[in-house]
Design goal:
single chain; about 170 residues; alpha/beta; five-stranded mixed β-sheet; two-stranded antiparallel ribbon; 3 helices; about 25% strand
Length: about 170
């Protein structure tokens, strides 16, 4: 008690702190058209076509995203579905850049192209794939195609021609 009717209070706080850093995480699903129309040329100098351009774009985006894992382990996972008249799961969820590069270089190649473009089944397969992602990280779908669909899901609404990397049905 001070003589003027006021009081002086003291407060002592002991705190223990820790450094906390949050890492932004993400899952990215590439859905890629590999139909025969992707063979159409896009330039003559240097020679290129739609599938080569798409291959390069998928590889560039994926590699840049996966490079984030060098400083933030397990922050980014990618997967890939390819479609034409059928739908194929070409890469399961992974954070491994080498595996990603290998699958992109193998399956986004000229000789894996078939007739037909079935967007609808590819989107259904993407939805099925998203359901297998068990973490709470935000998931983004990056869709590559060059045109309108030429094939559709059956009138009953059941997905057709959805296959895994080995040609076995997913549904």
């Amino acid at each position: 008690n001070d003589d003027d009717g006021t009081y002086t209070l003291s407060l002592k706080v002991d705190a223990h702190g820790r450094n906390v850093s949050e890492t932004n995480k993400a899952n990215v699903l590439f859905v890629v058209d590999t139909s025969s129309s992707m063979r159409h040329p896009t330039s003559t100098t240097p020679p290129s076509n739609r599938i080569i351009d798409t291959h390069d774009a998928v590889l560039t985006i994926g590699d840049k995203l996966l490079a984030y894992n060098n400083t933030h382990p397990n922050a980014v996972e990618v997967a890939m579905i390819a479609f034409d008249g059928d739908v194929y799961e070409r890469l399961d969820w992974t954070d491994d850049k080498t595996e990603f590069d290998s699958k992109v270089n193998t399956y986004l190649a000229y000789y894996y192209m078939h007739q037909g473009t079935d967007w609808e089944d590819s989107m259904k397969a993407a939805l099925q794939k998203l359901a297998t992602d068990t973490d709470d990280d935000p998931t983004f779908v990056v869709f590559f195609t060059d045109g309108e669909p030429s094939q559709y899901t059956s009138f009953m609404g059941a997905a057709e021609n959805v296959k895994d990397d080995h040609g076995d049905p997913l549904n």
